[in-house]
Amino acid sequence: MKLTGFVRSALSVVAFAAIAVAGGWFGSRLSPAPAAVSHQASGEGYVTPVDLAGASAGVERTSMAPVERVSTIAATERQSVARAFQEQFRVVSETTIPVIVEINVVSRVRREVQASPFDFFFGTPRQQPEEREFTQRGLGSGVIVARDGHTVYVVTNEHVIQRATEIEVVLADGRRFDATRIGGDDRMDIAVVSFDTPDEVPLAILGDSEELFVGDWVFAVGNPLGFESTVTAGIVSAKGRLPSAGSGLSGVTDYIQTDAAINRGNSGGALVNLDGEVVGINTWIASQTGGSIGLGFAIPINSARRAITDIIASGEVAYSWLGVQVGTATGPLGVDLGWSGDGALVTGIYADSPAATAGLLPGDIVTRIGDRAISDSASLVRAISAVEPGRSVAFQIVRDGTPRSLAVRTAPRTADSGQDLSSLWPGITVAPIPDDARERLGVSSTQQGALIASVAGGSPAGASGLRPGDIVTAINGTTVETTRDFYRVLNETDDEIQFRVIREGRHLFMGFVRSLAHRQVRDARG
Predict the structure, then answer these.
(1) How far apart (Å, rounded) are the C-alpha atoms in residues 164 and 155?
(2) Rounded-to-integer distance, Cα 460 and Cα 6, Å
(3) Which of 58, 88, 498, 513 has the highest local Cβ count within 10 Å?
(4) Catalytic sites, residue numbers
(5) Per-residue b/e over 170-203, b at no fewer than 16 CB within 10 Å?
(6) How far is residue 369's CA from residue 363's CA, in Å, rounded to a whole number?
(7) Is the peptide bond between 426 and the residue preceding it cis, with omega within 30 degrees of 0?
(8) What is the pTM of this model?
(9) C-beta separation of 290 from 250 below 8 A
(10) Is it the case that residue 231 has pLDDT exceeding 80?
């Protein structure tokens, strides 16, 4: 049962109580301080009125009457609001605990074991480490999300069950079931297991994570360190959090950050809103100790929902493929492109890809996909990951300073998508020349051009002999002074491309030919 109206009313009462307390306290401060009112400190700036019933000598009774009345009302209202929230916390806990399960797994791992020093005296000495198989037990949480006949489906994290040879699901009421892995996705760290029972099993209500706001109450429900059916409370600390570089976490989803305590064993459990709806799947924590320090992260349920459906249907998540290489069009690169907004810069197009078919070109800045604003390359990856394969979606782009709209129909991503670098056009990324690198690059402070930042081996540019650090000053005789010039001139050229570059102070000419497959990218210009 949603209690949005109740919560709004409760917050109004809190605001009234706060105003009443403020008015009463300041009223007492502006008149002579009565002996019957004391200020008890419990931390800096915290003041507790102890007794407002009596009045001291020298203080008119009429000056105390409003304070007594308002403060009494405030105290009553505060107590009422506190009890109302306590009651709702109970409702959330009672609703959510039955749909959260404990997941126990057994996996077998092989490890190298060093020779024991006792082997030298009591056995045959081994010169090389011996590989042995060990049984490893693990613990996680899960959320009951669907049922089909006698088959019940539970969502959890992929890292909980990834290498499991045995899976057991334990319900909050103590019932135990052997479970089967249906499938999973390590990009999003989502997996689904199932068990069979003819008996009644409660199902979780999935909410709308887009309706969350920073500051909203949330609850983490799971089995931390084996303490089953644990509920911790906190708030939404932030939305749209991304994993740090080198964390090993994929960028196909962002995360909800919460200070509700999340520990080992909570993985795969639920993040729940004040209505008892699941709004996230608890996945990881940031910690220097291995335990909760108030930095927990959950996959938004809106991101997980389609993944869950895909896994139940086919055992895997179907992702869309666009067929581009991208960077971020901000900072010095944005300035050099003549662009002051956010967006993802298309640096390369794969031949015969959805991007090539739709008419995207190198140098295009993608600012919106469907209803999602694109701020950088990572947000473009997330937006495409959320698009169902084969669906047509509207792109808003900026090409050489001019806004345009394109319709792009994505294709299913396969294991081979983007692997053939010979189909990548042009196969180089460029950037403005950094002032602090000019001496090392052998160019003057006034030299203009586009610096080659990277070259994809096997691509047309890679086969031409171009190198990172080369500075492109002209394409087919047309001067290139900025990265914006580079992409405009490149897209205007025909089949034969000749670059004039500066390499370590020397002027060189290097070229390559646009292949038949890459002419599709050229023909998309307009």
Answers:
(1) 15
(2) 64
(3) 88
(4) 159, 189, 267
(5) bbbeeeebebebbbbbebbbbbbbbbeeeeebbe
(6) 17
(7) yes
(8) 0.75
(9) no
(10) yes
